[in-house]
Specification:
Chain lengths: ~130, ~220
């Protein structure tokens, strides 16, 4: 896992961590979440919980089952939303309140759907601003 | 400066967006998007792209078919990409006329490099995919050589060998071909002698190399 940018000390925008095996997703998600500070990390089998503990994001976006599972384990104790982009089954899943649910529309993980789900999850958590 | 026109054909919008956002930072690329082959046809009505990046599962017929169809209309450089390329899919794409094959897990920098390279005549193929290609080509060579060797067999010997490769005993072969067991034995001896093989087992292996399991199925139904 490669840290591409350090966590800003002071930011008024929500911090979203994107941990993905498909780096191009970071390109797509970054521009869809214009309201957030997006930090992208390559999934190279590293310590996901350690990364999230250090970064303390407001939401996490992942694209693999393994990272989704590790992120959910970390997130369940912190009321942190985790969004899993199912690229093979074209599904968008959200982990909140201790369980996964399929969200979004039939179009699957489109940038717009991701933006809507992240914004909704942040709002539900107590407002999009830190 | 003329910009390189790139057609990104992928049913997943998130990939099209990812490539579009990535290449928007580069001044030498221009992007056209398509989410199906119908969209590809529509896009090339105006002008053929310089490069087409095509998803292996592009609806409705798949990326390999899309490459074949696109090449009939345009002299575009075509690159297929997918999540888990296999030896067969890479070879099929290249046979269809693709100039390269990429993993969807490719880094943004890697994709830009591959796109710039293809217009300079490079074949974008990651190291592991190149190995898959070489394996596949070796398999084809081996098969061609084995088929050439099998040319010395008569059609009856070929039928017998087909059944031997299925694991049939002489009695079963005799029944399937309506000949005596003694004749089967003679055919088997002739096959081993002509192909310079030491045993029935070696002959069965040879047959599978030459003709693959799919061609042995006809005989299997005869035995059953």
């Amino acid at each position: 896992m490669k840290v591409t940018q350090l966590r800003p000390a002071q930011t008024t925008r929500p911090l979203v961590a994107v941990v993905c095996a498909v780096p191009l997703l970071g390109e797509a998600v970054g521009s869809a979440l214009e309201f957030a500070e997006v930090h992208t990390f390559s999934d190279r089998g590293g310590d996901v919980a350690g990364l999230l503990r250090w970064l303390q994001p407001d939401a996490v976006i992942v694209d693999s089952e393994r990272v989704a599972s590790e992120a959910a384990a970390y997130a369940s104790e912190r009321d942190l939303p985790v969004i899993h982009l199912g690229l093979r089954d074209h599904e968008l899943r959200l982990f909140r309140a201790g369980r996964w649910e399929v969200v979004g529309n039939a179009d699957g993980p489109t940038p717009e759907a991701i933006r809507n789900v992240v914004a909704g999850a942040l709002f539900a958590r107590g407002g999009p601003l830190r | 400066m003329r910009r390189t026109r790139i057609l990104v054909a992928d049913s997943l919008q998130i990939f099209r967006s990812g490539v579009r956002n990535l290449l928007a930072r580069e001044s030498d690329f221009e992007i056209v998007e398509a989410e199906s082959f119908d969209d590809v046809l529509h896009a090339i009505e105006q002008d053929c792209p310089d490069i087409a990046l095509i998803d292996l599962e592009l609806p409705p017929y798949g990326g390999v078919s899309a490459v074949q169809r696109l090449r009939k209309r345009c002299s575009t450089y075509t690159i297929v990409w997918s999540f888990e390329p296999s030896r067969e899919t890479v070879l099929a794409a290249v046979r269809a006329g693709a100039h390269g094959f990429l993993h969807k897990e490719i880094s943004p920098e890697g994709l830009v490099r591959a796109l710039r390279g293809v217009v300079q005549g490079e074949a974008p193929l990651s190291r592991d995919l190149a190995s898959l290609m070489i394996d596949a080509l070796h398999g084809i060579d081996e098969r061609t050589r084995a088929r050439d060797r099998a040319g010395v067999l008569s059609s009856r010997e070929r039928e017998v060998l087909d059944l031997v490769a299925q694991g049939a005993r002489n009695k079963q072969i005799a029944a399937a071909l309506t000949i005596s067991e003694f004749t089967v034995k003679r055919h088997v001896q002739n096959i081993l002698q002509k192909l310079e093989l030491p045993s029935r087992k070696a002959a069965a292996t040879f047959y599978r190399t030459a003709f693959g399991p799919e061609e042995a199925s006809v005989a299997a139904t005869q035995i059953a």
